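Appendix B. Extra example for self-study. Work through it before the problem class; the solution is given directly after the inputs so you can check yourself.
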Amino acid sequence: MIVADRKPIEEILNSIKEYDKIMLAGCGGCVTICFSGGAKAVELLASQIKMARKKQGRAIEIIECTPERQCEYEFIDQLKDDLKSVDAVLSIACGVGVQAMSERHPDTITIPGLNTKFMGYPIEHALWDERCAGCGDCVLEWTGGVCPIARCAKKLLNGPCGGSANGKCEVDKDVDCAWQLIYDRLKKLGRLDNLKQVRQPKDWRTSTNAGQRKTKFEEAML
Amino acid sequence: MKSGSRLEKVLTAGEFAVTAELGPPQNADPEAIKKKAQYCLGNVEGANITDNQTAIVRMSSIAAAAIALSCGVEPVVQMVCRDRNRIAMQSDILGAAALGVKNLLCLSGDHQKFGNHPQAANVFDIDSVQLIAMVKRMRDDKQFLSGDEIKEHEPRLFIGAVENPFADPFEYRVLRLGKKVEAGADFIQTQCVFDVEKFARWMDMVVAEGLHEKVYIMAGLTPVRSHKALEYMKTEVAGMSIPDELIKRMQAVEDKEAKKEEGIKICLEMIEQVRKIKGVAGIHLMPIGWESITPVILERAGLLPRPEV
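Solution. Structure tokens for the complete assembly:
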């Protein structure tokens, strides 16, 4: 899932300071699961904004909504009529949702209320960890299911570096060293041979280095 | 000869080799390099010119190496993967060789978090093992990483790598060293050895794998002037092993000058100890911020004058 954090309230208030009526749009997808952009987050943020604006002496009207997924046209197209009456949309979907909204409703300004961070999952209640960098050329087959691209601070394919100590990464002592994890898992699986081979330089063309990526599923194309 | 560097000649002649670190300044002053080069001149096989060490911006290692060369000191240019992609690295490798550099040490590089530009994007297009293989390919196969031919004047470099016997997973460290050797490393400089016992255990594993016959291993040594430096390394630098007895020993000495002398003595004892370990082909001195002590230590260790090769 995509994990995002809410922007600081001061930044949000500043970004909507010139508007008197906005739509606050959440998303029923990933950001609902990570608490930053679901229906509850919409409700909470709307009251925070209203209170702050009242205090500033410039009340604001807010239309609250949480489409099932803000990243799909069919769900955000339904907002068209409501959008006619607002000055802007404050979106608390991920960056994908914000862009879908902007693209589908080009006459309305859409402002992001979240900072989109990574693809990952919760490792315990209310704590998410990054797992995938979307590099476009998966290496998990030989790494014991631990991604060194997303989880090693140096993206090493022949790690670990000299800063791995007590299972932790030198960059952040709260983060596991991906290469220690890879070593431990492969050892358990009896596949340490996987690490003896010198891994060749990665072809980054499948990553973000070749500009915006596209993908299509031929069989399903209309 | 792969490169014809002095370091290569001394190591292949079976002599105990010595290198020392020469950190470039955080400014554009060539005199800073020239001054430090004097501590190395005639005393070491090569002076390691660090590449923006600890991710702090300093004079370019290749530029500093050119200045060292002009002083008669053979540089070991350090190259990290943090700041450049494969295009810039190969370009710099050609440039370094053109300036007369004959030794290149390949490292991943300290993460930018530890430096003075933590906001910077890092590169890590290739890693240190891949860098070693790339330099070897340029030298031996006369090819760029792309496979394009280097028609003439390929860079003739003696390829160095580093290994940290004190980082985790300990038992994997020798396997990884093996990968660096397979990739093409000619010599290895280790992380600072303070824990000689653990280093000896690591060397036993290196020898058991026969790696000491495929690569020259130089033990990294750092003379210290105070117990605080040791305490700092113990608590703040990941992957360091500092025995408490060493800290206590430095702590027990009160006078500042006496502390320096104690630090020198410890370093001399370690030189003695690592020389006796099978497979150790030399030492690499890293007197962080104390370069002037290099000739003193080498003289007292009986490592001067350097052999003629």
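Self-check: Residues 18 and 283 of chain B are 5 Å apart (CA to CA). If your reasoning did not lead you there, revisit section 3.
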